[in-house]
Write a structure and sequence with these properties.
- The chain has 66 residues and is an all-alpha fold.
- It has one domain (3-65).
- 88% of the residues lie in helices and 0% in strands.
- The protein is built from two helices and no strands.
- Helix 1 (3-30) runs antiparallel to helix 2 (36-65).
- The longest helix has 30 residues, at 36-65.
- The chain is elongated.
- The two termini are 19 Å apart.
């Protein structure tokens, strides 16, 4: 992939992480979950994975410039 494509993909992955967190927060306000602990754990882990992957894509090209 090109440098620009990697940056855009990294930003996209970070946006997905934000959407997951937002969905969990809004969902918890409108609906009472049966097992809220698991919803928060799975959602948090998913958001962290997307955030980490996005940061890797953004940072990988910055290290190649040095």
């Amino acid at each position: 992939m090109t440098e620009q494509a990697d940056r855009e993909f990294g930003k996209w992955l970070m946006d997905i992480a934000k959407y997951v967190v937002t969905g969990i927060l809004i969902g918890s306000f409108f609906k009472s979950f049966d097992e809220p602990k698991w919803i928060y754990i799975i959602g948090g882990v998913t958001a962290l994975l997307f955030l980490f992957a996005g940061l890797l894509f953004l940072n990988s090209k910055n290290n190649n410039k040095k």
